[in-house]
Design goal:
Elements lengths: L12 E5 L4 H17 L3 E5 L4 H7 L5 E4 L2 E5 L4 H9 L1
Parallel strand pairs: 1-2
Antiparallel strand pairs: 1-3, 3-4
Length: 87
C-alpha cells in the first residue's frame, strides 16, 4: 500500500578530502553535480582535522562515503555514484 506519510530515507553522502589535493577538486565537482541533480545534500570533511580519518584514509583521498560505507576513492565515478544513489 502507498503510505502518504512514508518518506524514503535520504542517504548520508560524505566526501573526505585534504587541502591541496587535485583529485579532491575533481571529486567535489562530481559529487556536487550529482547531488544537485538528485536533490541529495552532501558534506565535505577534511581528514587533516581528524587523526583517525587521517590514519585510515591518508593514501586513498578523496574518499566517498555513503551511509558510513566507503564506496569510492581516488576518482569518483559519476555513473557509479548515480547508480548507488538511485538504489
Amino acid at each position: 500500500m502507498n503510505d502518504p506519510g512514508f518518506r524514503p530515507s535520504v542517504p548520508d553522502l560524505l566526501l573526505l578530502t585534504r587541502p591541496g589535493c587535485h583529485l579532491c577538486e575533481d571529486a567535489r565537482q562530481v559529487v556536487e553535480r550529482v547531488s544537485q541533480d538528485l536533490g541529495i545534500p552532501w558534506q565535505e570533511r577534511s581528514i587533516e582535522q581528524d587523526p583517525d580519518l587521517l590514519d585510515r584514509f591518508a593514501e586513498e583521498i578523496p574518499v566517498l562515503m555513503i551511509d558510513g560505507v566507503q564506496r569510492d576513492f581516488w576518482q569518483i565515478d559519476e555513473a557509479r555514484l548515480r547508480r548507488l544513489l538511485a538504489a
